[in-house]
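Section 5: illustrative case.
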C-alpha cells in the first residue's frame, strides 16, 4: 500500500504540478503509512485517492470521556511547503450549534499550538502527521472544559464542567445516530467493524440513560443552553 501511494504521489507532484518540494514528496507518503499504526488506539487517517495532499482523520473517542465510542472527523490539507509549515486542519463533526470541545469551534477551527492556531509550542519540521493526530486525540479528556484557560484548574464536578460534559456527550450521541449512514460509506473493513461495535455500545448507553430524568442546563459555557433528552433520543433512534 505504502509503495503504491508513494509512486502515485511522486507522479502527481512532478507531472501535475501539485508540489516540487522534494522533502514533502519523500516524507508525506511515509508519514501516511506510519499513521496507520495508530489504528490500534482508534485513530484512522485516509488520504484522498486523487490528491495525497488532502485527507481526513476519524478519531474514535477514548473510554470514560464524553467522546467515548464517537467518531470525530477532521479534514487535513498539506501546504506545498510542508513539512516546514503545519498542515491545515478543520473539525467536521458538528451539529451547527454545540461547541463540542473548547479547542474545536462550531465553524471548524481547531485551536492547537503546533498548527499555529493557539499559544504554546510551535510547529517544527521534526513533527509529522502522527504528531498532529496524537495531539488531537490527547484533547479528548474526561473533563474537556479544563482545556479552556479560565477552567484549567477546575474540578470535573464543578457544575459548569459537569453540565458541559453531560451536554456534549448527549449531543454527540444524538449526532452519531444522525450521521451513522454517512460513516457507513467509509470503505475500510476494520473501521466498519469498530463502527458497528461502537454503535451497539452507544445503543446500550442510550437505553441505560433513558431511565434518567430530563435535565435542563443553566450554566453552560459559550452562550449555549439546552437539555438532555435521553428518552426522546431512544425513541427516535433505537
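Designed sequence:
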Amino acid at each position: 500500500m505504502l509503495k503504491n501511494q508513494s509512486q502515485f504521489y511522486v507522479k502527481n507532484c512532478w507531472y501535475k504540478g501539485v508540489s516540487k518540494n522534494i522533502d514533502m514528496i519523500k516524507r508525506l507518503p511515509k508519514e501516511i503509512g506510519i499513521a496507520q499504526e495508530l489504528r490500534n488506539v482508534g485513530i484512522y487517517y485516509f488520504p484522498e485517492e486523487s490528491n495525497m495532499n488532502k485527507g481526513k482523520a476519524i478519531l474514535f473517542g477514548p473510554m470514560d470521556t464524553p467522546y467515548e465510542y464517537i467518531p470525530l472527523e477532521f479534514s487535513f490539507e498539506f501546504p506545498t511547503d510542508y513539512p516546514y509549515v503545519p498542515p491545515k486542519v478543520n473539525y467536521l463533526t458538528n451539529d451547527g450549534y454545540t461547541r463540542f470541545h473548547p479547542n474545536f469551534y462550531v465553524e471548524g477551527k481547531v485551536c492547537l499550538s503546533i498548527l499555529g492556531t493557539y499559544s504554546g509550542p510551535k510547529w517544527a519540521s521534526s513533527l509529522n502527521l502522527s504528531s498532529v493526530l496524537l495531539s488531537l486525540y490527547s484533547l479528548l479528556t474526561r473533563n474537556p472544559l479544563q482545556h479552556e484557560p479560565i477552567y484549567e484548574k477546575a474540578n470535573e464536578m464543578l457544575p459548569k464542567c459537569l453540565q458541559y460534559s453531560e451536554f456534549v456527550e448527549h449531543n454527540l450521541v444524538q449526532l452519531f445516530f444522525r450521521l451513522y449512514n454517512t460513516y457507513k460509506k467509509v470503505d475500510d473493513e476494520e473501521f466498519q467493524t469498530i463502527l458497528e461495535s461502537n454503535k451497539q455500545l452507544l445503543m446500550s448507553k442510550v437505553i441505560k440513560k433513558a431511565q434518567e430524568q430530563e435535565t435542563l442546563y443553566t450554566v453552560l459555557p459559550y452562550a449555549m443552553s439546552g437539555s438532555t433528552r435521553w428518552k426522546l433520543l431512544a425513541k427516535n433512534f433505537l
